[in-house]
Amino acid sequence: MQLESVTVRRMTLPMLTPFTTSFGTQTHRDLLIVEAHSGGVTGYGECVALAEPLYSEETTSTCALVIQDYILPRLQGLEISHPREVSAALSPLKRNNMAKAAVEGAIWDLWAKRENQSLAQSFGGTKDAVEVGLSIGIKPTDADLIDTVGAAVDAGYKRIKIKIAPGRDLQMMRAVRAEFPDAVLMADANSAYTMADLELFQALDELDLLMVEQPLAHDDIVDHRHLQAAIRTPVCLDESIHSAEDARQAIELGSCRIINIKIGRVGGIAESLKIEQLCRQHGIDVWCGGMLETGIGRAHNVAIASLEGFTLPGDTAPSARYWAEDIIEPEVTMDDGVVAVPTAPGLGFSVKQQLLDELTVSSFSTDWC
Ligand code: OSB
Ligand code: MG
């Protein structure tokens, strides 16, 4: 297969509810949708970078630039027999993982559609439904948070993740645990703490959390090792893992017992599959993280979460949790805490092309011919 053309669209979607983490509040999603075309078929990918470099160094704007100036030129004229070859072709480019993943994802969807395979099938997924957890942002009061957790428990989510930040941590988590003694709870710090906060994490041990996600610096694996050795609660790494090589080092050091895979953060599907395999070999639990995706990125996430190594519920909540109207149809929906893995070719959802056109504020396309 040869890529004939690629179009990248930028759009802004208002979120139904603002989402606050230790690094800031998202009220809108500023994102890129990549369309890859070949033989009359279109594959779709989503760039998960945020508008500002608060989660990682990438932003929507840096991704647009890197895709246009560096990624697409390397794919021009390339004969692609399997989408795995895309990450190999892009490997000389350092990092810029979210930019690479957006393009690789579109090509993977295109290839799967042409091969008449679902994305899940093309990834080697085996489950026909995936368990879903909810990620809840920092709320102004404990009462607000308890209401939101209660609604999530009632909705059937299999695991509830609560964002924590200095000043909104131990007391708040104790209040939630007291209200929901049996809920499967975890906390995500988005790298807001240091080893000076060891006592906080030791105190959190008493709450029987499923895990604590990225407690320490975004680029650390050494201090996480010391933290994991000093607490019972499993440490999960998110921000610190950008590749299978990072995962190998973290596992070797004992820096975590769980890894959250985000396709964008690790540079694509091929790299995600390597991490899943490595974790399976080492008995490390894996789950699919989320970046407040539209239906396009969400469909990729649901497909990858169908792999055997994804042993814990992922942040793949239904569309209606985020958007007034998703850009795919049907929307992603949840039943009894699970999302069905589509079996139709590619994403398994159709993209609302007219809505995409209406939302697009700027775009660029390759001028290959
Ligand atoms: O740390 O997992 C995170 C959203 C944006 C950036 C980072 C994170 C998150 C989430 C939301 O937790 C997960 C989702 O519901 O998509
Ligand atoms: Mg996280």
Description:
There is one protein chain. The protein is built from 12 helices and 15 strands. Helix 5 crosses helix 6 and helix 9 runs parallel beside helix 10. With 369 residues, it is α/β, with parallel strands linked by helices. The radius of gyration is 20 Å and the shape is globular. The strands form 4 sheets. The chain has a 7-stranded parallel beta sheet with strand order 5-6-7-8-9-10-11. It has a 4-stranded antiparallel beta sheet with strand order 3-2-1-15, with helices on both faces. The model has no long low-confidence stretch (mean pLDDT 98). Helix 6 links the parallel strand 6 and strand 7. The protein starts with a strand and ends with a strand. The protein binds 2-succinylbenzoate (OSB) and magnesium ion. The site of 2-succinylbenzoate has 11 residues, from loops. Keywords: Lyase, Magnesium, Menaquinone biosynthesis, Metal-binding. Its cofactor is a divalent metal cation. It is an enzyme of class 4 (lyase).
In short:
The chain has 369 residues and is α/β, with parallel strands linked by helices.
